[in-house]
């Protein structure tokens, strides 16, 4: 057991496949620490005047951070490797939701589209309009189906949406209640949506 403290509060925690712990801090830095004793490995920041959003780790261990550049008033998605070398930095993306069956990064852009980005180049592989301003993250089924819950900016009265592995729309079900956690797929085949509804059968 160990304790990691800092003068700023931690806003989120991600755990890598090698059990490395990544902590997003309110000082707008991402900290990598040892799972064994909490020793800090490194810190990562996108520069001054930037507000960091979510952090996710891809299936190829590449890491992604969504951030908001205050001077230009532009959201970005940046991809970097284990050595903190930036591979690409794309403007216009508000959040990385997860990954497709092909390993493409799934993101929401400022045009309210679900976009698949090539992990190597950051180029757009496909995009589809979802017409919603808020999405948490996505769930991926064994057949490649992508499930996400999206709602209006207030967080109410959105939809649970399903897309195929290439972004083709499959179905949508109204979702009443506040969105506060991503959808989850369980072994029993049900899709659980943690809001004021209980579960859907995909």
Termini separation: 40 Å
Name the structural class: mainly beta
Q: Please count the helical segments.
A: 0
Helix content: under 10%
How many runs of DSSP E, i.e. beta strands? 19
* Shape field: globular
Poorly predicted regions: none
Characterize the structure shown.
The chain is an all-beta fold. The chain has no helices and 19 strands. The strands form 5 sheets. The protein has a 4-stranded antiparallel β-sheet with strand order 1-2-3-4, with no helix packed on it. A 4-stranded antiparallel β-sheet has the order 5-6-7-8, with no helix packed on it. It has a 4-stranded antiparallel β-sheet with strand order 9-10-11-12, with no helix packed on it. It is globular, with a radius of gyration of 17 Å.
Chart the SSEs and their pairings:
Elements: E1 10-15, E2 21-25, E3 30-33, E4 40-44, E5 50-57, E6 63-69, E7 74-80, E8 86-91, E9 93-99, E10 105-109, E11 113-117, E12 124-129, E13 134-140, E14 146-151, E15 158-163, E16 169-175, E17 184-185, E18 191-192, E19 199-200
Antiparallel strand pairs: 1-2, 2-3, 3-4, 5-6, 6-7, 7-8, 9-10, 10-11, 11-12, 13-14, 14-15, 15-16, 17-18, 18-19
Quick summary:
The chain is 0% helix and 51% strand.
List keywords for this structure.
0% helix, mainly beta, 202 residues, four-stranded antiparallel beta sheet, globular
């Amino acid at each position: 057991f160990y304790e990691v403290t800092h003068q700023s509060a931690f806003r989120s925690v991600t755990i890598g496949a090698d059990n490395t712990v990544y902590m997003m801090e309110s000082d707008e830095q991402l900290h990598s620490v040892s799972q064994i004793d909490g020793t800090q490995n490194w810190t990562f920041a996108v520069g001054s005047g930037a507000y960091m959003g979510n952090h996710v780790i891809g299936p190829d261990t590449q890491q992604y951070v969504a951030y908001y550049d205050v001077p230009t008033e532009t959201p970005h998605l940046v991809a970097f490797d284990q050595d903190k070398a930036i591979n690409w930095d794309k403007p216009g993306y508000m959040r990385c939701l997860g990954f497709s069956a092909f390993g493409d990064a799934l993101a929401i852009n400022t045009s309210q589209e679900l976009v698949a980005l090539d992990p190597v180049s950051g180029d757009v592989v496909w995009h589809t309009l979802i017409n919603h301003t808020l999405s948490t993250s996505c769930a991926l089924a064994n057949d490649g189906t992508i499930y996400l819950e999206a709602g209006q900016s207030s967080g109410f009265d959105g939809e649970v949406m399903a897309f195929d592995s290439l972004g083709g729309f499959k179905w949508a079900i109204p979702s009443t209640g506040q969105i506060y956690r991503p959808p989850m797929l369980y072994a029993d085949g049900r899709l659980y949506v943690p809001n004021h509804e209980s579960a859907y059968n995909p």
